[in-house]
Amino acid sequence: MEGVKGARSKDPRKPLSELVAGSVDAKRSREGLRSASLFETTGTALSKSRASFVLPLLLGALGLILPQLRAEAQTLAGPVVTETGLPPNSLTDLVGTHTGSVTALDTKDQTGTQNDPTKYVQFGVPSGQQYLGYQSFVVPTTISLSQVTSLQLMANVLAPSSSSDAFTWSIYNWSTASYETLGNQNNCGGVTGLHTCSADGQSFANWKWLQYNAPGAPLTNYINSTTREIRLQLASSNASSYVNVDWESVAVYSNRGAGAIFQPPVVYRWQYQLSSNATLGSQFPATQGINVNVCQVPFTGGACVTPDIIDFDFYEDQSISGTNSFVYTTGAVQALHSSGRKAIGYVDAGDIEKVRPDYQQYVDFDNACTGCLIGNPFSGFRGEFMLNINNDKGQADFIRKMTQARTDRVAANGFDSVEYDVISNYQNKSGFTISFQTQEDFNVSLTKIAHSDGLSVPLKSDNGQAQDALTISSFDFVIDEQCNQYSFCNSYTGFQSAGKAIFNVEYKVSTSKFCPTDNSMNFNGIYKGVQLYDLPWNPCR
Which helix (H) or strand (E) holds 397? Predict the structure, then answer.
């Protein structure tokens, strides 16, 4: 949430080599393995029992049979976008061995320092072993491959430091017959590069969540058109260690391309609750700590009123879910819908927060381009950094890819709208030179992502572009912070002339000072505390 002076109000306390191929070929390089044919990659140096296990997959790859799903996929469906979580169908070792059953990967049930070998799969052995293998996931026939918009690996791992033995996940591109890197066991910045993290330097200290999006396009290249297999390779960098995997899933997001986009009425009462805590989690467990029935007397007096629409994060606050869990706020969305109200899902677009599960992928991109993506810290918010939305090295394309995956998740959870925060980087001290036109082009591209997922999208605090015709036509309404405090409320007359709602929030100005103005301008004004819990919430009308 960005004010014109850079004031933001989100709770700052929120935590949120060469492959040694062993008996295959000790001199084969990693690139050689990537460019190997399907038969060569899957059929080399397999034991008889393993060969019998892999044979059905080989036949499937040749189009002779269709693999059967080992376990039922988990689905979450919004009006337009569906998330289908796929457990691995099978595990295949090429070099080294694994212990444990593939069924152990269906459920995330290890956290902290827990160590129940029946709950996870160990790739490699404790004494150290080179490991190379792959996991197969099968996309159900109910999903049209042409409708897939995002593919996302999620895993819960207990691992060595990547400095001692990096375990890298890669996704197979069936079109190029090669693997493309997703990432390794780092999840908070890594042990080398520009944004190192001490926790990633620890070996087997705690279970940690990994999350990576498939990097390229079209996404159909990663799904075998005949067998519908998605193949993920896991490879160690040396023979010194092993990795435990408690849970692994590929989330497939598919877009049905139908549905009306919600347009907020001009007069529509809103609430802004981006933060929660353990106390609120106990008070409102069914709605993940979101107080959907908050009721307060408005500035105009009378009986208490409730919000028509609430803006909140699509993940439950980690003070409730725990530091290694990312739980959707689906219960809050459903509760609002059951009473005829609406929900806005919060997404950071122009900056990156360390507490986000996909943070490491931003760091990996930034390291690869020598600092071209992640810029200055966002003033006042520890662990949050501005992003470079220029595209000279593919930065904007990368951000859009990541934002597409986040937006898909918001849509699959049933939200009606998505708020993209930090979309006025050209006005801020980002560490990069960003032009007015570059910002507008980037912002408009975000609206296309939202609209394609059936979501309306507000212009967030970019008052400098609020009078531009393309901006007005592209965005569906406005979320503004502190326009009374900083005297720029007249920036949104173009949106009002277009019949679009203005949602305003003030943090430092009393309701007696700004509510008369907001009401006279037909703004939907509220007063909030800067930490953005459920209370205080004082609507102007």
Answer: helix 395-412
Can you give the pTM of this predicted structure? Answer: 0.88
Q: Give the type of residue at 284.
A: F
Which of these, 241, 214, 205, 412, lies nearest to 323 by C-alpha position? 205
pLDDT band for 363, please (50, 70, 90 cuts).
very high
Enumerate domains of the chain plus CATH numbers: 35-255 (no CATH), 270-539 (3.20.20.70)
Asked whether the CA dihedral 3, 5, 6, 12 is positive or negative, the reply is negative
445, 274, 327, 398 alpha-carbon torsion, rounded to 10°: 20
Which distant-in-sequence residues (6+ apart) come within 8 Å of 459 by Cβ? Answer: 423, 443, 465, 466, 471, 475, 477, 478, 479, 495
Contacts of 40 (CB under 8 A, 6+ apart): none
Q: Residue 381: its pLDDT value, please?
A: 85
pLDDT in tens, 4-25: 333 345 433 233 333 223 322 2
Query: φ, ψ for residue 231 (rounded to 5)?
Result: -120, 125
- Residue 382, number of CB atoms within 10 A of its CB: 11
pLDDT digits (tens, 9 = 90+) for 126-160: 999 999 999 999 999 999 999 999 999 999 999 99
Whether the Cβ atoms of residue 426 and residue 438 lie closer than 8 Å to each other: yes
